[in-house]
């Protein structure tokens, strides 16, 4: 199934490149929750310093690109595993990263700052001893915090997005955070209740760079460097910097100070996220149901080899955390098969393998729960084992597991939220993107929870109705 999907996508990609040979096209990843460098505006379009720079360079150099927003770690790993051609995500140039990536001309100079909640009694780094500090995985702020952790004796907790990290500090679960100075200042300027402790003297001043996999995509890197030189010379670069560092978030997000305004301003984004969630759920549960049925039938086969294969597959994919499986398929597998796998395909395959294993287990259990005396009766009437299974056992077993199947549909709907880790913008990722630009965590997540609750309530009613019908 995965091989066919990858082959089909590869053929489509080849055809697309052939048609667009005169205009190079690339896949670029980014961290979609990193304002003012990368974030989604009220029209659900990705903007920010990084995105405007990339757009201006692409126009100047005559290439096109597809943007893939995801968590910072996933973005960089996508490039190192050949799932994407380049990454622009407020990424600091460090010796360790130079061993993995080739960087273009540095486009921004920054430094590391640390911040605490407003009203905090923390006054110096020495006050962090024995306390917990929140850091964002894979960032220079995290690297710096870890480099001084032993000296100042604090503990660390990790987050994948900035807004959740800030909220952890504001709520008092952790006492401080380390991050890039312009990012912290922009967030504070737009309502985040933190205060920077070293705004005038940032640590480890460094530079941001656009990156490609080491030894790969030399043409893209050269185009970036040429384009950057052009936009810096004609003043476009400085206009972009001033546009975001001197602006408030409301200029890009609109008025979102009430639940109604948030819903109104982000209606299209919520609908798109819900649509993606439903697509993943429907395709995933249909294919997982078919795969689970095959596993269930194999699990009650008279052939020991088939039973062993079924049990091994069910054991393996029920035992793997779904996020690990998603990362393996999306980031790890392309390096083995030598072909890119779209995030949507990787997400569907993840759902099929994971949910299919659970479906296979209860389908097999449904077949086995049919009284064995019925098999003996069928055989005594001259039916073969296979015919007895098809005509007598399986129809009864399927009827028994229909309610469980509908319940698995509800579980699949909720499990789609895990796929946001590989860049699929479903309902949960939509909430993350909205919160990253308006800092209205409570209201946004209340709306997301309400949408999930409404959909799951409908599915639960459907499950109960199916259960009554099948038991009648």
Topology:
Layout: H1 2-19, E1 25-31, E2 39-40, E3 46-47, H2 49-61, E4 64-70, H3 72-80, E5 86-87, H4 95-98, E6 101-103, E7 108-117, E8 132-136, H5 140-152, E9 155-159, H6 162-170, E10 176-180, H7 181-189, E11 194-196, E12 203-208, E13 211-213, H8 218-233, H9 236-245, H10 250-253, H11 259-265, H12 267-299, H13 304-319, H14 322-332, H15 334-337, H16 343-369, H17 372-380, H18 385-415, H19 427-438, H20 441-471
Helix pairs in contact: 2-8, 2-9, 12-13, 12-16, 12-18, 12-19, 13-16, 14-16, 16-18, 17-18, 18-20, 19-20
Primary descriptors:
472 residues; Periplasmic component/domain (HisJ); alpha/beta; 13% strand; MetI-like fold; transmembrane; disordered N terminus; transmembrane helix; six-stranded mixed sheet
Short description:
The chain has helices at 2-19, 49-61, 72-80, 95-98, 140-152, 162-170, 181-189, 218-233, 236-245, 250-253, 259-265, 267-299, 304-319, 322-332, 334-337, 343-369, 372-380, 385-415, 427-438, 441-471, and strands spanning 25-31, 39-40, 46-47, 64-70, 86-87, 101-103, 108-117, 132-136, 155-159, 176-180, 194-196, 203-208, 211-213. With 472 residues, the chain is α/β, with parallel strands linked by helices.
What is the average per-residue confidence, as pLDDT, rounded to a whole number?
A: 86
Return the CATH architecture of the largest domain: Orthogonal Bundle
Helix content: 55-70%
* Sheet/helix structural class: alpha/beta
Overall form: elongated
Which strand-content bin applies to the residues? 5-15%
CATH topology term of the largest domain: MetI-like fold
Separation of termini?
37 Å
Indicate the CATH class of the largest domain: Mainly Alpha
**Radius of gyration, whole Å:** 26 Å
């Amino acid at each position: 199934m995965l091989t066919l999907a990858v082959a089909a996508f590869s053929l489509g990609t080849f055809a697309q490149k052939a048609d667009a040979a005169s205009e190079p096209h690339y896949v670029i990843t980014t961290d979609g929750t990193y304002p003012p460098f990368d974030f989604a505006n009220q029209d659900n379009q990705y903007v920010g310093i990084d995105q405007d720079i990339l757009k201006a360079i692409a126009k100047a150099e005559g290439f096109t690109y597809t943007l893939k927003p995801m968590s910072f770690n996933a973005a960089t790993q996508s490039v190192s595993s050949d799932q994407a051609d380049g990454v622009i995500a407020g990424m600091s140039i460090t010796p360790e990263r130079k061993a993995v990536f080739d960087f273009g001309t540095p486009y921004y100079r920054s430094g590391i700052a640390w911040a605490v909640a407003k009203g905090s009694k923390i006054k110096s780094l020495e006050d962090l001893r024995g306390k917990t500090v929140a850091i964002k995985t894979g960032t220079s702020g995290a690297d710096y915090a870890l480099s001084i952790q032993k000296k100042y004796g604090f503990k660390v907790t990790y987050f994948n997005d900035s807004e959740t990290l800030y909220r952890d500090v504001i709520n008092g679960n952790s006492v401080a955070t380390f991050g890039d100075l312009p990012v912290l200042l922009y967030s504070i300027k737009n309502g985040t209740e933190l205060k920077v402790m070293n705004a005038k003297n940032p640590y480890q001043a460094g530079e941001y760079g656009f990156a490609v996999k080491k030894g790969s995509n030399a043409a893209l890197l050269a185009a970036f460097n040429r384009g950057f030189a052009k936009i810096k010379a004609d003043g476009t670069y400085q206009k972009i910097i001033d546009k975001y560092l001197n602006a408030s978030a409301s200029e890009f997000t609109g008025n979102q100070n009430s639940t109604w305004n948030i819903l109104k301003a982000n209606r299209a984004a919520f609908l798109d996220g819900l649509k993606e969630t439903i697509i993943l759920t429907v395709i995933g549960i249909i294919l997982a149901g078919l795969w689970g049925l095959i596993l269930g039938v194999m699990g009650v086969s008279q052939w020991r080899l088939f039973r062993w294969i079924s049990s091994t597959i069910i054991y393996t994919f029920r035992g793997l955390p779904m996020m690990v499986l998603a990362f393996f398929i999306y980031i790890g597998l392309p390096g083995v098969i030598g072909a890119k796998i779209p995030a949507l395909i990787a997400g569907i395959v993840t759902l099929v393998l994971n949910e299919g294993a659970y479906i296979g287990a209860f389908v097999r259990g449904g077949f086995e729960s049919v009284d064995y005396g019925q098999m003996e009766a069928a055989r005594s009437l001259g039916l073969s084992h296979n015919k007895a299974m098809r005509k007598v056992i399986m129809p009864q077993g399927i009827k028994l597991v229909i309610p469980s199947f509908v319940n698995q549909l509800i579980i699949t709907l909720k499990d789609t939220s895990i796929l946001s880790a590989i860049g699929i913008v479903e309902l949960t990722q939509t909430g993350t993107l909205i919160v990253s630009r308006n800092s209205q965590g409570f209201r946004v997540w209340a709306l997301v929870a309400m949408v999930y609750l409404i959909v799951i309530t409908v599915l639960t009613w459907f499950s109960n109705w199916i259960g009554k019908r099948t038991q009648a």
